[in-house]
Specification:
- By secondary structure, this protein is of the alpha+beta class.
- Helix content is about 30%, strand content about 15%.
- The strands form 2 sheets. It has a 4-stranded antiparallel β-sheet with strand order 3-2-5-4, with helices on one face.
- A hairpin with a 5-residue loop joins strand 2 and strand 3.
- The two termini are about 25 Å apart.
Amino acid sequence: DIPKEVLTMGLPFYSRDVKTGDWKTYEDLLKTHSTPEKPLDPSTNIIDSAYFNGIEMLQQKVDYAREKGIKGVMIWEVGQDCLSGVCGVDGPFDTETTSLLVAVHNQVQATQPKEVDNGSKSEL
């Protein structure tokens, strides 16, 4: 058995079409299936026959990893997120609400153990 304390959970930043086997980056999904005025719903995990992990699913996976005592999460592959030119200052999409990496980061920060007066960490 492998101890859970040395495991990391993989978080995909791409979709896989279950009919064709084709894949698309998360950024490609944004560009082809949403607009800045109507971005992907954070709870969306399927478009047509393409399955992916949306923002809420990734947040749930971060929570699951923490609850189960898994060492952490890893991303495959961060370059498939909403990148500069599509998100942020140079792009039409808002990074704070559409980036998977930002969503993962925010969820990790939101579930960090809180500091107590004596400087030690407390559990969630």
